[in-house]
Structures are given as structure tokens and as C-alpha cells.
Design a protein that fits this description.
Layout (H helix, E strand, L loop, with lengths): L16 E6 L5 E7 L14 E4 L2
Antiparallel strand pairs: 1-2, 1-3
Length: 54
């Protein structure tokens, strides 16, 4: 089951896991592992967001 929750750069990471960055058009910008309590890093594109990796 896919998780459709999205997080924006600067929001707090809810759980330690691998997250995938997407641009405003939904293009995959790569994945990274983030620790719970950290913040999602800034991206190069306006409207970008992160989703939980699978």
C-alpha cells in the first residue's frame, strides 16, 4: 500500500526512513535517508515535495 502523504522542504521528518523528492510536475528527483526529527532539505525547484520511499 503506497503512502500518499506529502511533505514540503523545511517540515519536520515524521519517522526515520528513505524519502523520495519530486518536483512540481511529479518527476522523481532522487531518494535520501532522513532521521526522525530532522527537517526535509531545500530543493532546487519551487513546488517540490517529498514522499515516503517504497
Amino acid at each position: 500500500m503506497a503512502n500518499s502523504k506529502q511533505w514540503r522542504p523545511g517540515e519536520t521528518v515524521p519517522e526515520s526512513a528513505t524519502y523520495v523528492a519530486f518536483d512540481a510536475n511529479g518527476k522523481n528527483g532522487g531518494s535520501l535517508y532522513l532521521e526522525k526529527g530532522k527537517r526535509f532539505p531545500a530543493t532546487q525547484h519551487s513546488g517540490s515535495y517529498y514522499k515516503l520511499g517504497e
